[in-house]
Amino acid sequence: MPITIRADREKVSPKDVVDRYHGMMKKSFERMGVHFDNYSRTSLPLHHKISQDFFLNLFNKGFIREQSVKQYYCPNCSRFLPDRYIEGECPHCHQLDARGDQCEACGHWLEPEQLINPKCKVCGSSPELRTTKHWYFRLSEFQKKLEDWQASKPDWKSNVREFCSGWFQEGLTDRPITRDIDWGIPVPLPDAEGKVLYVWFDAPIGYISSSVEWSQKQGTPERWRDYWFDPETKLVHFIGKDNIVFHAIVWPATLMAHGDFILPAQIPANEFLNIEGKKISTSRNWAVWVDEYLDVFPPDPLRYCLVANAPENKDADFTWKEFQLRNNSELADVLGNLFNRHLSFVEKNFENKVPPAGILNDADKAVLKAIGEATGKIGKSLEDFQVRRATTELMELARTGNKYFNDTAPWALLKTDRTRCATVLNTMVQLQAALAVLMEPFLPFSSEKLWRMLNAPGSHRDQRWDSVPDLRIPDGHPLGKREILFGKIEDAVIEAQLAKLHN
């Protein structure tokens, strides 16, 4: 619906809009260091065919039924209004700009007829109810199966389980999965002219069609089956809370109805991330646009800020001041300072080569032990989808390094015990090599830069996670050119971003 609305406003085709934003998003992801095995799109003919086959499978099994219904029609626009073309007051939380399919404020899935004082989103007039027909998925028949299935997932996040529990208590009802619109996937039935599949019926099928597309590109067109039909496969959906109902209820029910595919193993849904105390709204331009951000800042500070402040259990707020604070006090002062002062010391006093390690004392061994412990904790946190905790563990390891450097005072040892000084500096090199690998999920560009500064062989991405505690840069190894890893962000730069947001 947003695509067709924008296309109407710009007087272009929906395909023009899709092509433009697909390219923009792909480029922004690449610039942010986000890589896909297959960056697909649901406008592909392959996806259309797979979605239509899915629909026919369910239809032929009796899980989809036809029903005549009353639907809003705009006399002024001379057309039936799809749900997102209608806005009104939410009957649950009374948000004034709820959509006809969902209220983003409270997350309830809605039908247009439930809205209070509905208006046509295009012209603003009041629509009237007229009779049309649509096809409904028999979601109500799957409530018991869904409840039993979710009961077998005690490790799911509480917000997902509680959200679904609320839906089960209300009782699942059959849901329309077609719309009156000319953009989308045509309903593959002879008497369904002018009808397309509802986006939240076909969009999750895009996970399958993307896998098929990937397999074809690999030259092994049947390989996708090794994932989707193997009960050992772990299918994980990373989503926001407004998509819980679709991924934890509607999509699994659709898969159950089809019968051939695995079900999701995990759905680690986050809550909402707001900006400067207000909900993100791209239509109102209350957003930080990634391509514009990257014209001013490097990608890693934003990646770090979003991870360190991830809305895992409750809504979180992105503010430019906090972004500045995290960059300056954590990335620059903790991580960046750790690398810069140590490497500059080695450069000045040991010919920019890894100093030889002597006999390790308890303080040295404690640092090496901390590397092993942090590797395990960060890895476990990521496996548990606790990215904030993983970031905290990463920064704690960096703080351990800073404390070790301060406590051992190599600048003093240089004058009294050069051998001991070399051992301390060697230990610091090993810590930094470990951090170069452990930082990768959060700070990939900085990880790569640090690896180059260490002049370590190969790539930090070639290292196995569980081998990080044993990673060693040999004595005498020549180090690379030292660079500033994280620069400070000045107040004036942040004020400019705030002004842009409010304009």
The share of residues in helices is: 40-55%
| Biggest pleated sheet | 4 strands, antiparallel
List segments where confidence is low: pLDDT < 50 over at least 5 consecutive residues: none
Secondary-structure arrangement, i.e. CATH architecture of the domain at 292-470: Orthogonal Bundle
Assembly state? single chain
- Give the class from helix and strand content and strand pairing: alpha+beta
Distance between the termini: 26 Å
How would you name the CATH homologous superfamily of the domain at 292-470? Isoleucyl-tRNA Synthetase, Domain 1
Order of helices and strands: HHHEEEEEEHHEEEHHHHEEHHEHHHHHHH
- How many H/I helical runs? 18
Provide structural commentary:
By secondary structure, the chain is of the alpha+beta class. Among the domains are: 1-35; 82-126, no CATH class; 292-470, Isoleucyl-tRNA Synthetase, Domain 1, CATH 1.10.730.10. The chain is 48% helix and 10% strand. The chain has helices at residues 2-10, 14-31, 45-60, 143-151, 158-170, 199-202, 205-218, 225-228, 244-258, 290-294, 299-308, 320-349, 362-383, 387-408, 410-416, 418-438, 444-454, 491-502; strands at residues 64-74, 79-80, 86-89, 98-99, 116-120, 128-137, 175-176, 178-180, 195-197, 273-275, 278-279, 316-318. It has a 4-stranded antiparallel β-sheet with strand order 2-1-6-7. The protein has a 3-stranded antiparallel β-sheet with strand order 4-3-5, with no helix packed on it.
